[in-house]
Batch of 3 targets.
Target 1
Amino acid sequence: MVIPAFNEERYLPFLLNSIDVARQRYTRTAAEVEVIVADNGSTDGTALVARSRGCHVVRVEKRSIAAARNGGATAAVGDILAFVDADTRIHPETFNAIEQTLASGQVVIGATGFRYDRMSFSMWIQFIPALLFLYLSRIDSGVVFCRRSDWHAVGGFEEDRLMAEDIQFQTAMKRLGRGRGQRFARVRGARALSSARKFDSYGDWHYVTNGFQALRWLLTGRGSFAKFIQRYWYDERR
């Protein structure tokens, strides 16, 4: 399991606790699940926390979520890769669900889906269109998984892409799979639990307010939009 992380000492222990539970529930052995923390230039105790929990820590200097994902995947030795954000908690049946989904050979990439650790009325109003987009696009989030050979075949994540790198990657994987009669799979019964910390920081309407701000920055120039991306995704913990 690959975990990109930048200054995640607060949230990482919760994810690792959930991984420990899922490893114990795995029908094979817990030792078969490798946990890699791709430390993307953290200045806090992220790496220390990860090492103290027995994780393989890989330092990735290029400040890009995509680069961190690729750095972790490159260090992995297993045949299956699973990617999850550091502020997430995985479902206890995650590893069993991944193995069962890929076993048929009909799936090129899959995802568990996710829900936030808290919801409000305003969050639901904004979340429903996002769910519709994910459903119609046949992509998803939570824990995203694939075979290591297929990750390599598409060239991994685009490291110069500072946002939506997971959408780009899943799109490339689906294109690869179509030529072999394989598909995207949305796993049932293993949904991940994601932190609502962006809503805590920016307010429960922040999809709307930041969306308008992003549009304004985009219209004022490419450089300005790049500054918005940097502030929203990289100047704080993601």
Target 2
Amino acid sequence: MDTTTFQAWRVALYATMTRRAATLMNLLDALLTLPHAKRAIELTLSLAFARRWTSFYDGVQEGHLNRRALRQVYGAYLPSPPGRRLVIVLDASSIFRPLSPTARDRMFVHAANLPAGAKPIGIGWQYSLLVVAPDTPSSWTYVLNCTRIRSGTTPATLGAIQVAAFCSTAPVSPLLLLDRYYGSATFLCDPRVQNCNKLARIQTHRVFYRQPPPPDAHRPGRRPTKGARFQPKDPTTHGEPTRTWSGTDARGRRVTVRAWTDLYFPNHMTHPVTLLECARHDGPDTKADPRVIWLLWDSPDDAPLAEIPDLYARRFSVEHGIRFDKQQLLWDEPRLRTGAFDRWTDLVMMAHNSLALARGFTAGVRLPWESETRPPTPQQVRQALVGIMPTLGTPAPPPQRRGKSPGRAVGAHPHPAKRYPIVRKSPFPPAPAPASAA
């Protein structure tokens, strides 16, 4: 990729900004050229931000983006080399706002990586991300869709909509990698996600069934609708695997993959799937890195057993990318209300994808203690853009001086911001009515 294509990408992004476009574009440029900012408001100190610091809040609060056009731009610049498998990942990430009563649509969301004994829930928002996974696990993901999960829906329902929207315009049929939350019949048997192959991790307590036995004329009664039971955590229900492969993964560890085909969810006996037991023979055996995991392959093609261990490891790239967005691009740092934070999220994802595309024409800037042999990281490419962006220019026009603001009108009394309660998806049952006097 050359700088001409990168400039066209920036012009296409600017075209999706329909209100306060120049301010939003300046914020995007500041995200790319101020790699050592610790707070979002510090972006206004960048030379790429041609306005005063108050324009930061003006842009994210009053700005507007055409998100449908933005997703089309993401798809048009999809980095998918010909001849390679297109692997996408669906996951959700939480933004915690326990002390923000003026932010609407807050709910109880999942909190990950907590110390032992802590409750794995928090108060805030949750965003569903659909990204392209790199060839090797890293933070070099490419965001296709990032949407806030509203309180009236679920991550699985919104994820199915995101996958269906991308697959309808994708150049090839992608492979979708999923975490255990999505390894259920609710998501995998949804008609909207049937246009792509799926590899999902499943919980070992789930129950599957084999095909029902053939009809027996000598057996009275109703024909069974389900066959023998199969449960991953119960070895007595497994039987002989259909296929087996043994070898080593990309890290040189011995791995054995066993496959059982033609299994069905209890209420979806017309949707066959394949279960895979991926067992590693050495290395740590912890909760975060177990030696044995169970995967589900949902595709008309046979599962490539030799590729499964390294293929599913690419799913963790989405977590590396989210960590980079939060730690370096300050995704969860500014305390904004719901609509403004959605626009800030769009800017962060634009910056994330801009770095993924800029990787094609810059090798990054490495600090003296950073390795020269490892591939560049997004932060190193971001440091290189500091010297490149001034030569590329910006599609945003310069600000116009307007003089001194008249200030607040005489007699105006602003009202306190509206407070919103925390949305509970499972409301408490109503209190029983008191017994009437006899």
Target 3
Amino acid sequence: MAKDLHRPVDIAVDGSEMVYFTEVPDPGVGGGANGVSSLDLDTGVVTRLHSGEPEPTNIAVDRDGDLYWTCKTAGVILRRSNGKVSVFRDKLDHPSGIAIDHKGEMLYFTEVPTPGVPGDQGGKNRVRAIDLRTGALRTIHTGDPEPTDVAVARNGNLYWTCTSAGVIVEAKRRGGRDGRY
């Protein structure tokens, strides 16, 4: 599909035509070769959509085609909408994994400022959610030693990998649209 990439890290698919991916050949280095690109599955053409972030880690695409990605070392989630990139959320603590529910209402992400350190030993890692309509930020879970990536099922249940513990964790959704777990 695509070759000669520079350390591709994450991937997301929009329908069946476009693949989006992050490349991080220089982790933590702003202004370098790190970036977000698309791969047109019909033509095989790779297009650079954004460059210069120090560590564009994981990426998600919503049902409208807007892209969201975490930038771990900058502590931000960026959004690309209508061809323009902007900071969607800042002042985050090493955001890593990212997912959007199938309705396009909630964005979930992980923060891993203390990789490998469980909460009962002072770890500050967590799984969080942002309501995409209101911007409200909520913590879903804390205490795991390294919640690296996150996925959301159609029924709203969350799943995340915990790299250092070697497990996948499930949080079952309870209740209505507010997404309580």
